[in-house]
Specification:
The complex is a heterodimer of chains A (63) and B (811). Chain A is built from two helices and no strands. Chain A has 63 residues and is mainly alpha-helical. The radius of gyration of chain A is 22 Å and the shape is elongated. With 811 residues, chain B is α+β, with helices and mostly antiparallel strands. In chain B, helix 7 runs antiparallel to helix 8 and helix 11 packs parallel to helix 16. The longest helix of chain B has 37 residues. Classes of the chains: A mainly alpha (63), B alpha+beta (811). Chains A and B meet through helix 1 and helix 2 of A and helix 5, strand 3, helix 7 and helix 8 of B.
Chain lengths: 63, 811
């Protein structure tokens, strides 16, 4: 039974961590576009090499 | 560009996936020159892998670049900060799938000066940031509109920020309640399972539960407290009153019991009650938010700018609200007229179908009146504003509409009706349990109160609170996927009880664009000559002609005479294609249907007839409605002959022509007085009052703004099948909602006697509450799995097939 003295606080702290992680994610706008987020990972810009005769434009790609 | 050999092959356009008409202006592989240009632009940027990634959605508008002239005042919406970075918020129409998001973002980022371009796929909105010195809004946006998407600016501060805020708050409350429920349950289960647990351990578990539950309830249950207080202040009760009462009483009493070190506490019940109810609230708010966002997008895309001519002759692009009487503005061909006025100069044809259902364009000459909302077809005109705002034809319609709407505002949603009956019953039961046990049963007041609280918790409408929103979320999501948008929360309920369907003709039952109908009556030479002229023009009749005929090159030197037709000087003399009077035919003033005449020197003029064809699946839709026992009617503002023809083709026996907006409303009122629940389907401005007066109303997305505002449901696409799908889903949803109510009442009937008898322990309450909620949720999810409508599948055998251009498959 003594184990409860540290197991319960550990369980609660872990739960709280998850709660705060979620609230942070919500606040930083990560839940605003669920549909887009699900689809975006499928598009990896690296697999579309620019055409050879096309001058390479350095666009300011961010993500 | 035209390649006569491959033109024979047909097939679908490489860009937009629409069938390639014979002799298309874009060559053999494209349906028009716009698509061809778009394809070359995408290829030029090295983005052709787009075509392999995308899948075309048959319910979305096509990707064909539009040539209706739409201009927006982008600068008015752009916002430049002190670092010189301009931000613009835009709504995007025409997104087919995630590949379109990728394409637009990549194209935007390749433009010089663009720093940030990101589309929110859920709300279909784009945020664009660029360095003000390096780029210009018009230019950036045209790069995307040329691909076939439509963009409209909006002011983010005006759009439902408040609702979004509330939705976020609900989600936050739900998560906090969920966290607390999980952790409190952890202690509760230990207490229930640990029969041999010492009293000290059990009591510390209760204290820990209190420590988690009380702050969580104080935070998460606020939406219920708010709503309960508002209701009580207004002298009413609603569902939130017993909920708040149960939660507050249960947690206070549990705290007291904890202090008294007794065996049973209800913290877990109180928190999970809040958690389950918040799930229902959140789902409800999200379903509404989605529909609202989509509705705002539709409206935003229609808000246009007008070109005002100032007194000194200079021009200014401004929103239409800026127009005042006596101001002058320009309307180019293909643009909608922004205000009622008089034509000062220029000549053109005006499409008035949205105003009065008239399918034949009327001529507008100098000095004639034109109305807001009509479409200028052939030539640029200059208009002087006569009336704005309050005095226009439009505001007359709006007045009629508001009068009609009053009746419908009285409709009370099923859930609210149930709640009105339910709340007093719950209060009475709990109060009598308390008084009964205390005064008659001889228990102490604390034990009696605990029994009363158990009754409150058990009767509390977890399942009831989920019964309606869970079904509505699933139904709304399913309909949205098919391009059907529910604008009001009670639309589904009202749809389910429909027994009369009333259609409008032009633009609803029909496509709203003319089709050439007398090909067999004409000689090949005439057709060839007429088409070589018509190919030059954007007039809908010319288009209808050139769409049908393959491989005819445009004649050199064709001249367009706005308001009259097309002319061409040949060696033999002048050839004319146009109006009856202009081509030397007696003008008796009354045209039965839209027509063009071809006049040549020394030959009698030839007539090309056009009519507005009914939508491809109109007859099937009408038949399916009749099969469901729904009486189908056609009410139109158009002439009798045109209405009769359309009615016959669609299989509608009960039709009425030449009705004014007020007549339509009268007829609907008469039907309502007979106890009928009328579904009105219409698109025109003249239908708006009728849409508002009907029991439930639907509009195609091509409808006038006012009509869309009045309608409960908006559907996209060229077909009428969405009407059936909406009805089908509504009936299914209605069945599920009633099942859900039955389930939660059955659960109450079983548990209330136990609670009244005082047998309910916290464990039983927790089990009963969770199972009933889960049963209701799983029952609702069946709607999402439900089979589609059979007619729909017959019409669209190839739906959702990815379109891949064979010629560009290399990787």
């Amino acid at each position: 039974m003594e184990s409860l003295i540290y197991l319960i606080p550990i369980a609660l702290v872990l739960g709280l961590l998850a709660l705060f992680a979620f609230l942070w994610a919500l606040k930083s706008g990560q839940y605003e576009d669920m549909e887009g987020a699900a689809n975006r990972i499928l598009f990896d810009d690296d697999d579309t090499p620019p055409k050879k005769d096309e001058p390479k434009k350095e666009a300011k790609d961010q993500d | 560009m035209t390649d006569p050999q491959s033109a024979e092959r047909g097939g679908s356009c490489l860009h937009c996936g629409e069938p390639v008409p014979q002799g298309s202006s874009g060559g053999a592989q494209f349906c028009c020159s716009g698509c061809h240009a778009a394809f070359e632009m995408i290829q030029g940027m090295g983005l052709e892998s787009y075509y392999q990634r995308r899948c075309l959605d048959p319910d979305q508008p096509t990707m064909r670049p539009d040539d209706e002239d739409t201009r927006f005042d982008f600068q008015a919406f752009a916002d430049t900060d002190e670092l010189g970075v301009t931000t613009l918020h835009l709504m995007v129409e025409g997104l087919q799938c995630a590949a379109c998001v990728w394409l637009i973002e990549t194209v935007m980022r390749k433009q010089p000066g663009v720093q940030h371009a990101r589309i929110n796929m859920t709300t279909r909105r784009l945020v664009l940031k660029w360095t003000a010195d390096e780029a210009d809004a018009e230019q950036l946006i045209s790069s995307v509109t040329h691909l076939g998407y439509r963009l409209a600016p909006y002011d983010p501060s005006l759009i439902s920020a408040e609702n979004q805020q509330r939705e976020k708050q609900l989600l936050r409350a739900m998560v906090v309640a969920g966290f607390a429920a999980g952790n409190v349950m952890m202690f509760s289960v230990s207490v229930w399972a640990g029969k041999d647990m010492g009293e000290f351990t059990r009591n510390s578990m209760h204290w820990l539960s209190a420590l988690i539950a009380l702050p969580a309830i104080a935070y998460a249950a606020r939406p219920f407290f708010h709503s309960a207080i508002t209701a009580l202040k207004a002298g009413r009760t609603n569902m939130d009153v017993p909920i708040s009462l149960a939660v507050i009483l249960a947690s206070t009493m549990s705290l007291v019991e904890t202090v008294r070190m007794s065996e049973h506490v209800y913290f877990d019940s109180a928190v999970s009650l809040v958690f389950f109810l918040l799930i229902g609230r959140y789902l409800d708010s999200r379903a509404r938010g989605r529909a609202r966002a989509a509705g705002e997008n539709l409206m935003g895309l229609k808000a246009r700018a007008v070109t005002i001519v100032l007194d000194d002759g200079s021009r200014e692009v401004a929103p239409p609200e800026r127009l005042k009487p006596a101001m002058k503005f320009l309307v180019s061909a293909g643009e909608r007229i922004a205000a009622d006025g008089i034509v000062l100069s220029g000549e053109s044809d005006i499409d008035t179908s949205l105003i009065n259902g008239e399918s034949v364009p009327v001529q507008a000459r100098t000095g004639e009146k034109v109305f807001a909302g009509t479409l200028n077809l052939s030539g640029p005109i200059k208009v002087e504003v006569t009336q704005t705002g309050e005095d226009t034809l439009l505001s007359e319609i709006v007045r009629l509409m508001e009068a009609a709407e009053d009746a419908r505002a009285k409709y009370v949603a099923l859930a609210d009706r149930v709640a009105r009956l339910y709340a007093p019953v719950v209060h009475t039961l709990a109060a009598s349990a308390f008084l009964g046990w205390w005064l008659i049963g001889g228990l102490g007041w604390q034990d009696s109160l605990m029994i009363a609280i158990a009754v409150l918790i058990i009767t509390c409408p977890c399942a009831l609170g989920l019964a309606v929103p869970a079904v509505q979320v699933v139904a709304g999501g399913r309909l949205l996927q098919r391009g059907i948008l529910l604008k009001t929360g009670t639309a589904l309920e009202r749809l389910a009880s429909v027994d009369v369907a009333v259609f409008d003709k032009t633009g609803t039952l029909t496509r709203g664009t003319p089709q050439w109908v007398n090909r067999d009556a004409l000689s090949e030479d005439d057709i060839h000559l007429a088409t070589s002229l018509a190919i030059v023009s954007k007039h809908p009749l010319s288009r209808a002609l050139s769409r049908e005929i393959a491989g005819v090159p445009a004649a050199e030197g064709v001249e367009e005479v706005p308001g009259s037709g097309l002319k061409l000087m040949t060696a033999d003399g002048e050839v004319r294609l146009g109006r009856r009077g202009w081509c030397g035919v007696d003008d008796d003033g009354e045209q039965a249907e839209a027509e063009l005449w071809l006049a040549r020197p020394d030959v009698a003029p030839v007539r090309f007839a056009f009519s507005d064809q009914v939508r491809v699946d109109a007859a099937e839709t009408v038949a399916a409605l009749k099969a469901q026992g729904i009486h189908v009617m056609l009410l139109s503002g158009d002439r009798s002959a045109a209405v009769e023809a359309a009615a016959k083709e669609a299989g509608i026996e009960d039709w009425h022509a030449a009705l004014k907006p007020a007549d339509k409303v009268d007829r609907l009122h008469k039907l309502a007085a007979q106890g009928k629940n009328v579904m009105m389907i219409g698109d025109g401005l003249n239908d708006a009052p009728a849409l508002a007066a009907a029991h439930v109303s639907l509009s195609p997305s091509s409808a006038a703004d006012v009509s869309q505002t009045a309608a409960d449901v908006i559907f996209q696409g060229d077909k009428l099948a969405p009407v059936l799908e909406a009805l089908h889903v509504a009936k299914y949803a209605d069945k599920l909602i009633k099942q859900n109510f039955a389930l939660s009442f059955a659960y109450n009937a079983a548990t209330i006697p136990m609670a009244l008898a005082g047998f309910v322990t916290p464990l039983i309450a927790a089990i009963a509450m969770s199972t009933s909620s889960l049963v209701v949720i799983s029952n609702s999810l069946r709607l999402g799995l439900g089979k589609g409508f059979t007619l729909k599948r017959q019409i669209e055998p190839q739906s959702n097939k990815p379109v891949q251009p064979a010629a560009h498959k290399e990787t």
